[in-house]
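Data availability (excerpt). The following record was deposited with the supplementary files.
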Amino acid sequence: MKKYLFLDIDGTLFDSNKLLPSSAKEAVFEARKNGHEVFIATGRAPFMIRDVLAELEIESYICFNGQYVVYQNEVISQNEINAAQLRLVSEFAENRNHPMVYMNAKKMISSIAYHPHIEESINSLKFPHPIHEKDFYMNQEIYQALVFISMEEEQAYQENFPHLKFVRWHRVSVDILPEGASKANAIELICNKLHIPIEDTIAFGDGLNDVEMLETAGYGVSMGNGHEEAIKRADYVTAHVDENGLAKAMKYLKLI
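Predicted structure:
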């Protein structure tokens, strides 16, 4: 029976060194050869995943944690952050000297020329510190923003902006999304548009931004390196990403 596979990138497809293991690449191609359809489901922006899309020959993907959905190279859904809310949270961050980064489908721009926390977290994705452009967010559709704060500082944002969603992905960085945004909502949208039973979907992930899709998909697989919340919500926990966890999960599920 055909299954629809939704794969997170960092910590799921990519190993701890942000590289694509040969076992994962082979598993994706074999799963597709066996009749299954493969999607990427990531918090990254479209411009950040071009290489892996090309290498895996994938044309359908979810970016910005559900805010930008593409099927067979056609954008089928896009949902930017409310401009008024984005302005307010940006002013809140500026007043506290918390830097931000703003993303649209083509690029990311920093609110400041340089900050070590931006350097640390963005470099962990193998991208350089983004350039600074004053008031960039005021003239663009922004699908996801990042604020660079500690876990203790995050609470103030949660309390002051209930209509925004904050998801930590790095020691010093938190994603900012519209309230209710998730990879899970994007999977449901794809299922509705393509008339796919949700029971035929399988989600693979490891992070806090994967929790909803692991619960919503017909079957949820957490990597062995997953966040404790991802592991808790999954139907199955596979091996660590560095130990061929994705390929092992696909074999366990008889997808390959």
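Summary of structural features: The chain has a mean pLDDT of 97.
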